[in-house]
Amino acid sequence: MGIGGGIFLIALGAVLAFAVQVDPWWIDLQALGVIVMLAGGAIVLVTLWYWQDRRRRASAARSRFPPDGEPPPDP
User: What is the pTM of this model?
Assistant: First the structure.
């Protein structure tokens, strides 16, 4: 889903929680909006954590080899 989907869910939840003035008897739109905002925030945080983890692994893999791309000789 990614950051874009998470931001979309945050915006959708904010609209449901703060802007919609309809009060159906079968659902609480304010509570639903808060739940959707929390889900969007969780998606953004998980995506950022995943990207940070991938960057760390990629930089560690690059630092094992010299700049010319050849592996170092065995000792």
Answer: 0.70
What whole-number distance in Å separates Cα of residue 56 and Cα of residue 49? 11
Considering all CA atoms of the chain, what is the largest pairwise distance in Å, rounded to the nearest integer? 75
Beta carbons of 43 and 6 less than 8 angstroms apart? yes
Q: Using one digit for the tens of pLDDT, what is the confidence trace for 49-60?
A: 988 876 666 666
Cα 18 to chain centroid, rounded: 23
State both tokens at 43.
């998606």
Question: According to the model, what pLDDT value does residue 1 have?
Answer: 77
Distance (Å, whole) CA 5 – CA 43: 8
- HSE on the CB side for 27, CA within 13 Å? 11
Vertex 66 angle, CA 61 and 68, to 5°: 115
Structure tokens at 13: 């939840």
